[in-house]
């Protein structure tokens, strides 16, 4: 009927519509319709009293609220979040993380060390969105004709993006997309096999994407240097076949979780994700960290008003300052 997330909460979430007069839980009867996924008061809350869910103050009651009453956004005065320049840190350090049942994992190690891969993929990188059409046709052909020959390769992925042409390539913040695309060429899932497709007239030139020693005919195809569409496809197929031969020799090996880095991605919040998927993902992240893994979280736009709660878990002023800098 309801979900109470934290022992400090004075509200609960309706699992389904609760009709007026229906018992919410022992000693509490709904005073009105409580819509599915909305909050119901578990205690009487005075005007100005805190409304707490997840153990966190969501806001303050504008008027008195009775036990069993529906609580909606129009009944709350929202708290003013502190400035990122004035956040407390180290006040909620969590040390009793859940014990990870498994410490190693089966991954693909990089010869130079560092984080390991979890899949074995051929990635084909582009310097500009104008190469996408040709590449997508080639990738479809590769998956049909080449991939079945290499059973140890999990797939072929085109790294397409809407960048590289008609942009101020030397603008101050152009470093952000360029850095992201450069780093992707070294992703551990891609096995160190570089395959880059350039058009030939873009502003995001190959030298901005790769290190000088990696800019070779074995790694880079310039489409404008080819004799038409068929030659482009044939060249892409030939290069992919050579890369796949190398990747097919990769094998998983048992590695410590300290070699694993996991990125958490928001999949689009719904009314129940805060009491279902998010806690599950958070619990899994805590277990991974306890065993030595790294878990990354990035959700600046949605977390902005709650960043001070993350700051409470920062272990030092240095970490808190880094968090504040990212939020700015």
Average pLDDT, rounded to a whole number, is 93
- Per the principal axes of the C-alpha atoms, what is the gross shape? elongated
How much strand? 15-25%
Order of helices and strands: EEEEEEEEEEEHEHEHEHEEHEHHH
Helix content: 10-25%
Question: Helical stretch count?
Answer: 8
Count of DSSP strands: 17
Distance between the termini: 41 Å
Specify the structural class. Answer: alpha/beta
Low-confidence stretches: none
> Over all CA atoms, what is the radius of gyration?
26 Å
Note the main sheet: 4 strands, antiparallel
- If strands are numbered along the chain, what order do they take across the biggest sheet? 1-2-5-8
In terms of topology, how is this protein built?
Layout: E1 2-3, E2 11-14, E3 23-25, E4 28-29, E5 39-41, E6 50-53, E7 56-61, E8 70-71, E9 76-77, E10 104-107, E11 121-126, H1 132-145, E12 155-159, H2 175-184, E13 196-198, H3 206-209, E14 220-222, H4 229-247, E15 253-256, E16 261-264, H5 277-290, E17 294-297, H6 300-303, H7 307-311, H8 317-327
């Amino acid at each position: 009927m309801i979900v109470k997330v934290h022992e400090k909460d004075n509200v609960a979430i309706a699992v389904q519509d609760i009709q007026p007069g229906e018992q919410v839980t022992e000693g509490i009867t709904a005073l009105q319709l409580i819509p599915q996924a909305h909050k119901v008061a578990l205690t009487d809350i005075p005007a100005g009293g805190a409304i707490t869910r997840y153990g966190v103050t969501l806001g303050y009651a504008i008027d008195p609220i009775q036990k069993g009453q529906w609580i909606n956004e129009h009944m709350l005065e929202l708290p003013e979040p502190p400035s990122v320049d004035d956040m407390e840190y180290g006040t909620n350090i969590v040390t009793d993380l859940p014990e990870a049942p498994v410490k190693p994992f089966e991954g693909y190690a990089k010869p130079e060390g560092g984080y390991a891969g979890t899949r074995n993929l051929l990635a084909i990188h582009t310097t500009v969105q104008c190469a996408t059409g040709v590449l997508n046709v080639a990738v479809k052909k590769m998956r049909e004709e080449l991939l079945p020959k290499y059973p140890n390769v999990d797939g072929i992925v085109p790294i397409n993006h809407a960048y590289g042409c008609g942009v101020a390539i030397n603008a101050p913040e152009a470093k952000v997309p360029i850095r992201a695309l450069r780093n992707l060429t070294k992703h551990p899932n891609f096995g160190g096999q570089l395959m880059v497709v350039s058009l030939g007239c873009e502003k995001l030139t190959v030298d901005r994407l790769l290190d000088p020693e990696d800019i070779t005919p074995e790694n880079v195809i310039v489409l404008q240097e080819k004799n038409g569409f068929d030659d482009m496809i044939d060249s892409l197929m030939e290069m992919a076949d050579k890369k796949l031969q190398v990747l097919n020799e990769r094998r998983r090996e048992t590695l410590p979780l300290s070699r694993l880095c996991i990125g958490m991605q928001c999949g689009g919040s719904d009314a129940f994700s805060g009491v279902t998927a998010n806690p599950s993902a958070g619990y899994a992240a805590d277990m991974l960290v306890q065993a030595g893994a790294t878990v990354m979280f990035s959700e600046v736009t949605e977390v902005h008003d709650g960043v001070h709660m993350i700051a409470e878990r920062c272990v030092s002023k240095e970490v808190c300052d880094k968090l504040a800098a990212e939020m700015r």
